[in-house]
Amino acid sequence: MAVQIRPTGKEVFFPAGELIVSKTDLKGRITYANRTFCHIAGYTEAELLGQPHSLIRHPDMPRAVFRLVWDTIAAGREIFGYVKNMARSGDHYWVFAHITPSFDEHGNIVAYHSNRRMPDPSVVASAIAPLYAEVLRVEQGHANGKQAVEAGLKALTDFVASKKVSYDELMFALQSAA
Ligand SMILES: Cc1cc2nc3c(=O)[nH]c(=O)nc-3n(C[C@H](O)[C@H](O)[C@H](O)COP(=O)(O)O)c2cc1C
To answer: What Gene3D superfamilies does the annotation carry (predicted)?
Structure first.
């Protein structure tokens, strides 16, 4: 499925009462996808299983966001955040995601799990999309991938610090203002 998908710029939505659910192995390969995920992303479950979750990565997403996700979940903690995803058609859909590690009985991380619901479109438009565009712009100013992600992460954490709250508090303040 290594076909290059071009973003169409068209936003699509899933019903507010539904959750998009997926599970992955430790490397982020999809091991479970619910019906809402398959439907909005435009893939069958069989097509999704075994694929890297980056299959639905949208090029507008800054790398720093995913660095923050992976650093947090690999350390055994949960994270909430906004993600712009790309369907098979190239259309995009925004989600408010909760990503968590799953543990075995010895406390080892054995998998990851994510539930996503529809974010408030006005929060995405007024706060998140402009923030991510700025972080992406910062990242694109660096030819070196490692430096790009570090600079993006700094832009992201500086923004959170400027609001004088923690990252988690900011995510919840935005989502619950909805
Ligand atoms: C449980 C779980 C759910 C994820 N969900 C998404 C998602 O919805 N969209 C996305 O682009 N990346 C998601 N990711 C992150 C991807 O694994 C990947 O890091 C990201 O798409 C960036 O791709 P890259 O790491 O190849 O640059 C998820 C990861 C995990 C562990």
So the answer is: PAS domain
Check: pTM over 0.70? Answer yes or no: yes
Q: What type of residue is 136?
A: L
Distances in Å between the Cα of 46 and the Cα atoms of 23, 35, 68 are 14, 12, 29
Mean pLDDT of 2-22: 92
Ligand 1 atom nearest residue 66's Cα? 19
CA nearest 68: which of 81, 55, 54?
Answer: 81
* Residue closest to 37 by CA, chosen among 81, 88, 75: 88
Kindly give the distance from the C-alpha atom of residue 159 to the centroid of ligand 1, in angstroms, as a whole number.
Answer: 22
- CATH fold group of domain 20-177: Beta-Lactamase (3.30.450)
Are 46 and 60 in contact by the 8 Å Cβ rule? The answer is: no
Which sequence spans correspond to the domains of the chain?
20-177
Give yes or no for residue 53 CB within 6 A of ligand 1: yes
pLDDT of 157-174, one tens digit each?
A: 999 999 898 998 888 888
Ligand 1 neighbour 8 (Cβ under 6 A): no
Average of pLDDT values for 15-19?
A: 94
Which of 166, 81, 93 has its CA nearest to residue 128? 81
Q: Do the Cβ atoms of 91 and 102 come closer than 8 Å?
A: no
